[in-house]
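Hey,
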Amino acid sequence: MRELTYYVGSSLDGYIAGPRGEFDGLPVELDVAAAMNGLRPETVPTAFREAAGLAGASNREFDTVLMGAATYRAGGTPSPYAHLRQYVFTAASEADSPDVTAVAADPAAFVRGLKAEAGLGIWLCGGGRLAASLAAEIDRIVVKRYPVLFGAGIPMFAGAYAPLSFTLTENRAFESGAVVQTYRKA
C-alpha cells in the first residue's frame, strides 16, 4: 500500500507560511536543498529542475502530489509539478492546467483511494487546512524546520484539536541551523 507523506518546510514555531500566505520567510538553505534534492528530486518544481541540475532526474519517492488551493496558486504556474500526478483540493471545478486534477471530494476518502493504487508514495505538499483534514491518513511527516520565528501565519496543521501520536525516526541537523525531522505514525 502506498504511503502519504507530509513533506513540508516550517518555521521554528510551526508555521508553513505567513498570515497572507507569504512563504519567502523560509530561507533557502543550500546545505538542506542539496541533501533533500538528492533524496527527493521530484519535490523540486518543474520550472526549477534544470537550474538545480535535476532535469533528467527520476522520481525516487513520490509519483503523486497533493496541494491545497492556496499552495497550488503559490506555485505561480498552471502545472507546478508536471513530472508528478498533481491533485489540487478546491471547490472550483477545474484547475488551470489539464495536467492538474481538481478534487472537490472528501480529501480523506480520496487519499484512501490513491493509497490502494499501485505506484510510488504520495506527497502532501501543503497547506495547513488540507493537512489537518488528512491527519489521520498521514503515514509519515518530514519537516524541514528552519531557524526562524514567524509569530503568526498558516500552521502546519490548521484544524480542530485532535491529538495523534507520531514517533521521531530521524533527526538530521545542518550547518545552516536547519533540521530535517522524520516522524512515523505511532
